Design the sequence.
């Protein structure tokens, strides 16, 4: 897909438009059947990344970009504004032609995830920090916790049992986080390994929606670090944060 420069816009509008453009490219790639299933993920990663970099560089030439699929530029560590992107979050789900994969376009300013968009192209949904989010509905009697459908961490399973949460297996980090934003779940708890591109955009959207987002010890999430490893994450409704953090602490985890 040939990229075209985007018109002047706010950071949130830009994030949304870039996420939508990359999502459209990925959907067309699925429909085209241009490659075998075992090659689809690699091609999706590469082509979505190229489009995202081109659009962001054109629209914000002074900003740095940290992408899962591009070589890192250490000079970004001294920059105030860094776009942190995952061109295809949930490559396995994309390759299997499931719906729970995403495109993440996040912007960190001074190390804080302030703006972003998460596109769920297979469902036609996109969530951005300039959305008007509805008030959260009353909390259910039993919270629902989204977890990895293939490798849920033992700590996460123990915490779910401790608070009596129903498990909801799901694919990409973006799909899990947006399940909480949409009200399809109340808690997304993760440990065992992520990077900044896995959660920068989802965290920005979660904060805009009025949700709690932190490390699993309650510490703030920081971005544009020299090492982009960010191994644990809690996104949840504020009314569940204290109980989840207490349950995590009772298990004596070692963050990171």
Sequence:
């Amino acid at each position: 897909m040939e990229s075209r420069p985007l018109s002047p816009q706010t950071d949130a509008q830009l994030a949304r438009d870039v996420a939508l453009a990359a999502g459209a490219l990925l959907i067309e790639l699925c429909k085209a059947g241009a490659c075998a299933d075992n090659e689809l993920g690699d091609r999706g990663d590469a082509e979505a990344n190229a489009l995202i970099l081109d659009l962001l560089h054109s629209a914000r030439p002074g900003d740095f970009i940290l992408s899962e699929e591009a070589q890192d530029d250490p000079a970004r560590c001294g920059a105030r504004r860094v776009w942190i992107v995952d061109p295809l979050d949930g490559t396995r789900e994309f390759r299997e032609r499931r719906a729970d994969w995403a495109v993440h376009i996040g912007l960190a300013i001074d190390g804080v995830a302030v703006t972003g968009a998460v596109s769920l192209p297979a469902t036609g949904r996109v969530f951005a920090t300039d959305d008007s989010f509805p008030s959260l509905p009353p909390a259910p009697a039993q919270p629902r916790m989204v977890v990895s459908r293939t490798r849920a961490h033992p700590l996460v399973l123990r915490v779910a049992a401790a608070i009596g949460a129903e498990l909801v297996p799901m694919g990409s980090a973006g799909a899990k986080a947006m399940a909480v934003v949409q009200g399809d779940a109340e808690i997304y708890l993760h440990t065992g390994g992520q990077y900044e591109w896995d959660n920068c955009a989802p965290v920005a959207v979660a904060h805009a929606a009025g949700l709690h987002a932190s490390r699993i010890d309650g510490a703030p999430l920081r971005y544009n670090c020299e090492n982009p490893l960010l191994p644990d994450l809690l996104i949840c409704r504020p009314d569940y944060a204290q109980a989840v953090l207490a349950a995590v602490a009772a298990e004596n985890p070692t963050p990171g």
